[in-house]
Write a structure and sequence with these properties.
- The chain is an alpha+beta fold and 743 residues long.
- It has 26 helices and 26 strands.
- Strands 14-26-25-24-15-22-23 form a seven-stranded mixed β-sheet, sandwiched between helices. A six-stranded antiparallel β-sheet has the order 6-5-7-13-8-11, with no helix packed on it. It has a six-stranded antiparallel β-sheet with strand order 16-21-20-19-18-17.
- α6 packs antiparallel against α8 and α13 packs parallel to α26.
């Protein structure tokens, strides 16, 4: 039997693409990449000016993809080999800033030239012979890329916004130049003498002004990404060979000891060796309250040390650091597509040829029906149609909203993987929640005790020698009450039962009922008020006599009940899926209900496979299901769900199987993510609606539909201003999401 053929490995590359100005440009480049042999998928982002391609590694190379884009007339280059994603982000910021400054300068000069041409209408001293070379200069310098891209697209049998601008300004310029150089011929043939230099200049100037405002908005939409990238300090004070030195971040190695003074940002992920200080982690979690750090605590590079001095040992650096992972996730999300964009892409692929046809028809109708001389008026109407129809707003409608929304989510400690997840969030109607670590804290805590402080101190001193989670909970409880603990001797643990030892000369026993009875001691009645359902009891005996007990339980997170109530209030059915015992699950459900967060259903004692089946069953009922969990055993169910929420913990930023990562680990963040999704989808529909309405109304008005009844005829200059305004309005509408209230 022949050996199975190995499947070629899938590779992925993101590289910059320059020269795109509208949805048709983006669609053309994307279609070109998708048609390359070996390409599995391609996404082109008009806002970030980049392309992300998944391809079969053996069939294609990044160099070939770059060359395919260049062959269409658009610019492309291989991604630079930066040290890590933070350096790559700095490079992207520099490129966006350079683009903005260049457009700003070209737009300003073009506007000045347009104003001068407009003044020529009132100052006869400024003749067409002066405006002709001025217009040639502006077209060749500020507007050169329009004509180069249009010619390249034509050679490849395609068209885009540059085609419309080139046809519009080119035809107006040629008519003006001919009128300037041969006015007698125009008079002789009854064509009318005049020129449209001011229209050509203002069209270029206003389109460039719109592009400038878009570039400025791009920098604003990427504000969250830029702020994250700027959090990492450039240097760190490192202790080496007994001395201290300030070294560049790039020279740090794992194991380095780093000193972090009050008010400084922590330069790398690590563990605190010594010192105590509250650390502001709001850039990760969205939580404004600082978190106390002391010896043994984990810290994250980029967080702010507020008031104390810390000495830390660096653990994770460069591309593997938590900050770098977050920046990478956010950048990938902002480069992604939302399915709603497909409609705009389909329209964009046929849009330009349709507009050119309408412009030709407009020209012919005006030439045939308008009073003599009709040629100039017919040309102006056709140019106006070409200019007003540029589909810039259509191409920006969705990606701007995705960029701003994912950035806004990141500031709230929510990492959404991309446009597809953002769109699916809106349609959720059911959510399944894991119990341990999701609804609850995920660790036992002392809920009640019948021990006095002296007895509790002895018991906690004994438990200090154990690594068991219950023992750690007892120690934390005693310390929270300010009790001084001693060292235990002759410590002996019996797994599953309890432990014994000597503390300050006293013989101590701690464990379950069976453990105490095995030592001839009758456990005391617990003596707690209320139900002990779902609690674990630890009995204590001192010097052979029963001393009392502690009740421990996994505590519900303070925000869980309110979050569940909020999820139900916005129309979601909320279930708890847990592998824990049914009695414990029902106890947690009862506590939630008492706090106002009643669940719709509780499914207990399910394996990881059982969680998958539960999600599939809900999906088979036609429900759109989300799953939230924080354990590795939840990963299969997270992947099966329509949307998977992972609650990050420790140094983990996100699970590969999750669509959304909650850095705070609170269920209220799920509610915030769904609210943001609904706001974002509403914004996307508004953007697309405006873009479509603008063209549906603008094209016939530009063609002269209002002229017979109202005598209204748009000019090419007005059309270029309207086109620029449409793009800016779409971006501005998306920017409103930066201030969206999520709570």
């Amino acid at each position: 039997m022949p050996a199975p053929t190995a499947q070629p490995e899938t590779a992925r590359v993101t590289f910059p693409v320059s020269g795109m100005t509208c949805a048709a440009c983006q669609s053309f480049v994307q279609k070109t990449l998708e048609e390359q042999p070996g390409v599995e998928s391609a996404t082109v982002n008009l806002l970030l000016h980049n392309a992300t391609v998944s391809y079969r590694a053996g069939a294609l190379t990044p160099e070939a993809l770059v060359e395919a884009v260049r062959s269409t007339g658009y610019g492309a280059e291989l991604p630079r080999q930066a040290a890590d994603v933070l350096a790559e982000q700095e490079e992207l910021d520099r490129r966006l800033d350079a683009e903005y400054r260049t457009l700003q300068w070209k737009a300003a000069v073009s506007l000045a030239a347009g104003a001068l041409a407009m003044a020529a209408m009132f100052l006869p001293v400024i003749s067409g012979l002066f405006l002709l070379p001025l217009t040639v200069f502006i077209m060749a310098w500020a507007g050169r890329h329009f004509y180069v891209k249009a010619w390249s697209a034509l050679r490849h049998g395609s068209s885009d916004m540059n085609t419309l601008v080139s046809l519009g300004t080119g035809s107006a310029f040629l008519y003006s130049a001919a009128s300037t150089l041969a006015p007698q011929w125009f008079h002789a043939h009854g064509l009318g003498h005049g020129h449209y230099y001011e229209a050509v200049l203002f069209i270029i100037a206003l389109i460039l002004t719109g592009n400038t405002l878009e570039a400025r908005a791009k920098r604003q939409t990427a504000a969250a990404l830029r702020s994250l990238g700027s959090l990492q300090p450039k240097t760190a004070r490192v202790v080496r060979q007994g001395g201290e030195a300030d070294l560049p971040i790039e020279q740090l190695v794992a194991g380095d000891e780093i000193l972090v003074r009050p008010g400084e940002r922590i330069p790398a992920d690590g563990a605190v060796i010594s010192g105590n200080s509250p650390v502001d982690e709001s850039m990760l979690t969205g939580e404004s309250l600082p978190v106390d750090k002391s010896a043994g605590s984990l810290v994250t590079g980029g967080t702010l040390n507020t008031s104390g001095a810390l000495r830390i040992r660096a653990t994770t650096l460069g591309a593997s650091s938590r900050l770098a992972q977050i920046v990478r996730l956010l950048r990938d999300a902002q480069s992604s597509r939302a399915p709603i964009q497909d409609l705009a892409d389909r329209i964009s692929r046929i849009f330009v040829p349709v507009v050119v046809s309408i412009a030709l028809l407009t020209f012919a109708l005006w030439l045939a029906l308008a009073p003599t001389p009709a040629f100039g008026r017919a040309l102006a109407a056709a140019v106006t149609v070409l200019i007003i129809a540029c589909p810039c707003a259509m191409g920006l409608a969705v990606p701007t909203a995705v960029m701003v929304a994912t950035g806004r989510a990141a500031t709230a400690g929510i990492l959404i993987k991309g446009g597809q997840a953002l769109q699916r969030l809106e349609s959720l109607d059911t959510i399944a929640l894991d119990k341990t670590g999701t609804i609850t804290e995920g660790r036992p805590a002392v809920a009640a005790t019948t021990l006095d402080d002296a007895s509790l101190a002895l018991l906690a001193s004994l438990e200090g020698s154990s690594e068991h989670p219950l023992a750690r909970a007892v120690v934390e409880f005693a310390r929270s009450r300010g009790l001084a603990l001693s060292a235990a001797s002759h410590f002996e643990a019996r797994p599953g039962f309890g432990a014994s030892g000597t503390v300050d000369g006293h013989s101590i026993l701690a464990g379950n009922e069976a453990y105490l009875r095995s030592h001839g001691i009758e456990p005391p009645a617990p003596g707690f008020e209320g139900s002990l359902e779902g609690h674990t009891l630890i009995y204590a005996a001192i010097d052979g006599h029963a001393a009392g007990a502690l009740a421990l339980a996994d505590q519900i997170k303070p925000s869980s009940a309110a979050a569940i109530a909020g999820l139900r209030a916005i129309g979601l059915r909320v279930l708890m899926l847990t592998g824990d015992h049914a009695r414990t699950a029902q106890s947690i459900a009862a506590q939630l209900a008492a706090a106002g967060g009643a669940l719709d259903e509780v499914v207990a004692q399910v394996t990881p496979e059982g969680k998958i089946e539960a999600v599939r069953k809900l999906q088979a009922e036609g429900r759109v299901v989300a799953m939230a969990g924080d354990g590795i055993n939840d990963a299969p169910a997270l992947a099966q769900a329509d949307v998977g929420f992972a609650l990050a913990s420790g140094s983990d930023v996100a699970y590969d199987s999750a669509d959304v990562t909650l850095m705070r680990g609170e269920l209220t963040a799920i509610l915030a993510a769904i609210r943001l999704s609904r706001l974002t989808m509403r914004t996307m529909r508004q953007n697309l609606g405006w873009a479509f309405l603008y063209n549906v109304l603008g094209i016939p008005i530009a063609a002269g539909a209002l002229y017979p009844a109202f005598g209204i005829l748009l000019t090419p200059v007005f059309a270029s201003a309207a086109m620029a305004l449409s793009s800016v309005s779409v971006v501005t509408n998306s920017l409103r999401l930066r201030g969206a209230k999520l709570t």
